[in-house]
Amino acid sequence: MASRQNPKPMTIDEGSVHIDPAVNKLKRILEGKPEPDFLPGEYIGNYTTIYNMCIQKPPHDQSQELYDKYGGIFEDYAKHTVLPSIMEKHDEYMLRELSRRWDINKIMVRWLSRFFFYLDRYFTVRRSLPSLTEVGMTSFRDHVYNNVHFNVKQVIIALVHKEREGQQIDRALLKNVLDLFVENGMGSIKRYEDDFEDFFLQESASYYSRRSSRWIQEDSCPEYMIKAEESLKKEKERVAHYLHSGTEPKLVDIVQTHLLVLVAKQLLEKENSGCSALLRDDKTDDLSRMYRLYHAIPKGLEPVAAAFRLHVTAEGNALIKQAEDAATSGSVEEQVLVRKIIDLHDKYMAYVMDCFQNDTLFHKALKEAFEIFCNKKVAGSSSAELLATFCDNLFRKAGNDKSNDDSTIESTIDNVVKLLDYISDKDLFVEFYRKKLARRLLFGRFNDDHERSILTKLKGQFGGQFTSKMEGMVTDMQLAKDHQTGFEEHIKNLPKGVDFTVTVLTTGFWPSYKTSDLNLPVEMVNCIESFKAYYAIKTNHKRLMWIYSLGTCNLTGRFDSKPIELIVSTYQAAVLCAFNNTDILTYQELLEQVNLSHEDLVRVLHSLSCAKYKFLNKQPASKTISKTDTFEFNSKFTDKMRRIKVCMRKFKKKKKEKTKLIMIVVKQVPLPPVDDRKKVVEDVDKDRRYAIDASLVRIMKSRKVLPHQQLVSECVEQLSRMFKPDIKMIKKRIEDLITRDYLERDTENPSTFKYVA
Amino acid sequence: MRRSSAASKKKSDSVTTDLFRSGSSKEMDRIDHLFNQYANTSSNLIDPEGVEQLCSNLEVSHTDIRILMLAWKMKAEKQGYFTQEEWRRGLKALRADTINKLKKALPELEKEVRRQTNFADFYAYAFRYCLTEEKQKSIDIETICQLLDIVMGSTFRAQVDYFVEYLKIQNDYKVINMDQWMGFYRFCNEISFPDMTEYNPELAWPLVLDSFVEWISEKQA
């Protein structure tokens, strides 16, 4: 049946009479030839023609024919017009033509699919055929793209190479062409990848491989790195401008591999300009660059961190050696050394924060480096001891040296705490520190704020147990003041005796001191008794133990010419006061009267009769004290000073303690022997043995059964906060515990231990 | 009638606790008789003098390992002394009621002791046997050296010689305890000598052996 509009069905050929001109007109328009635009009437007419042909009742339905014609139009155009026009050109011109033809094709598809639109409404859908758009695009792909892409790719890569060599190229053109590649994938990126990207990446790889070979020969490490950084930047830019974004990670990977990974060893170890050299010459910019470059590469930073660690260790070791060489007569200048180590730490910590962007790998490297050299001995002194001495000097001088204001002291304290973290024998530090702290506190050379500040910081870092004794000591001083005030109140109403100050220490917090059964001069005895009475009222259940070796006395020596005030130790005072009643005494008589040990008495007498000031005359007048000597009060003694402080010389071999006699009342140099380094080490060793025992028992009690190696490693772990236990010592303690029936060996498995309840 | 009832009474006796009456009582009598030949009549023990006499009759030296093995068999508690009970125990087990039978039993005894399953026990026993005081836990170096020689000398001559030399030279240890004693036994059995390649001081070996191995390595170097 004919339609209402057209009485007779139209055949395809008849239809073509209407369609073909329209198509040609379109082609001419698209090709830029002079041609008037389509009028709306024309447009509708074309559409209608096709529509009519489609709705003709079968067998006159021309849909299939129209569909085929449509496809034919594109195929024809592609084969006979488009493709040749591209193929006849070269290089950039070819690209341009391709790009142009592609754009044309897109528009043509759009227009023609509108003309033939009715097919898409029913025909293609019903028959599950590709849509008109698809046909148009597929046609281009099959007949044009597939034939040209190889050559096009070559051209593109050549252009890229040109650009890499520094020439300008038309980036927009490349972008268009590459978009074309993508779109010809019809939804999949595969065409782009297979037809272009793979080749491109290969080419880039060989390009950068060649580059790096040349650069690595010619350039220094910093220069190379700059070029590498530049290259990476440029390639990323390239992607942004005309490559598909998916190419970026692959491209970056290739560039990095060839420029950085494959030559890493050569680059970093370059003589005079490699990693170590940069560290040596403080080239922070270059090091930052190195970090940036290698940061993106997995495990890339490991060699850099290793070089960093080696360098810092070497610097640290150099400082240690320097200090060793400079140490004359076995005395190390710890002020200088510790300061230098602190400075070293600050310097390289800054590196870690800035150049290496706070990366944990570098924190670790720094830590390891410091742990290596901070645990070395310097001229026989352990680092723990040196650090303790450093603190001691710092706090002593704090009062006098105005250049050390509070904030400097605070920051130095912070540094000390940091350094202590690297030292494995922390308990040794505590012991030395405690002994020196005791002297500072007892002789009034301390600043309460500073002392508390460092203790707070140590507590924060290492726990309360670390600082408990020292805190107790500082608190004792506070309490002592209160006691003293109370005591003075108490004796206010009693007959005035000798001025008397007592400092009460809690045993256990303080280092142990020798006591002696000194016979005090009678004047002093009364003071002791009255304090005892006062103290008994204030507290009960506490026993007082008097440590005369730490006391000082101010005596007035009534010499013939003028009285002179003498500041002496209690021992010295006892001896001098013996002469209150008689002028002459023999050694033996003094010994009996004063009741000191031979060793102590000899030292005291030496300081009073053979040293700079001779308050006593000795018969015979030799340089040493012997048991047969006689002593006489030297009433003829005089000096221009009105106040003299008398030190006792130590006969034991010890470190520096200057025995300069200072004229005016000043810093009191402690009188009892400076603690023997050996004794401190022994004490610490003893404590360690107990600590190991306790730790082993604790572990076994909770685990009941444990193999040897695990027991050892758990023990080390538990104790690591305070010190690094020696494996041999642990083994010995285990054996001791077996003997004492705390543990036993498993009979089946002798390398396992069992807890004995 | 009466006799048989007496006999049955004896039988019923034998079912009761007295171990030493089971079996032939004649054997036990002979064992006791032998005991009395060596025992000190006032203490009713065989004392060192008696032991020496016994040894000479057995024709072994009193430092011979076989006497120690005999003591082990007897489960003797005090070094140098045998109680009657111990004597009975040992000789009964060896089925020896005369001196000759005892002498003949010794080789068999030695074989028995040297069996792997028994030797460790014997080795430990040897140590305990030398603990003379009440709360004693360790033995002095001198005695240890002698003991090592007796107990292990025939089987591990080289190790014993070296270890004894080391013990005499070193100063760290004045006594050796049971754990260290047993450690040496394990050492002889598990570690090839003198190369000692399997020895690892990080394992649970007693410290004295660590030092011993170190000393040998230094000597060999």
Automatic annotation (TrEMBL), chain A:
SMART domains: CULLIN, Cullin_Nedd8. It comes from the Eukaryota. The keyword Ubl conjugation applies. It holds the Pfam family Cullin. One of its GO terms (molecular function) is ubiquitin protein ligase binding. SUPFAM superfamilies: Cullin homology domain (SSF75632), Cullin repeat-like (SSF74788), Winged helix' DNA-binding domain (SSF46785). Residues 382-609 form the Cullin family profile domain. Keywords: Isopeptide bond, Ubl conjugation, Ubl conjugation pathway. GO terms for cellular component: cullin-RING ubiquitin ligase complex. GO terms for biological process: jasmonic acid mediated signaling pathway; ubiquitin-dependent protein catabolic process. InterPro entries: Cullin, Cullin-like_AB, Cullin_CS, Cullin_homology, Cullin_homology_sf, Cullin_N, Cullin_neddylation_domain, Cullin_repeat-like_dom_sf. Belongs to the cullin family. This is Cullin family profile domain-containing protein. It comes from Brassica carinata.
From TrEMBL, chain B:
One of its GO terms (cellular component) is ubiquitin ligase complex. InterPro entries: DCN-prot, DCN1-like_PONY, EF-hand-dom_pair, PONY_dom. Residues 1-21 are annotated as: Disordered. Residues 26-217 form the DCUN1 domain. One of its GO terms (biological process) is protein neddylation. GO terms for molecular function: cullin family protein binding; ubiquitin conjugating enzyme binding; ubiquitin-like protein binding. Pfam families: Cullin_binding. Gene3D superfamilies: Cullin, PONY binding domain, EF-hand. Neddylation of cullins play an essential role in the regulation of SCF-type complexes activity. This is Defective in cullin neddylation protein. It comes from Brassica carinata.
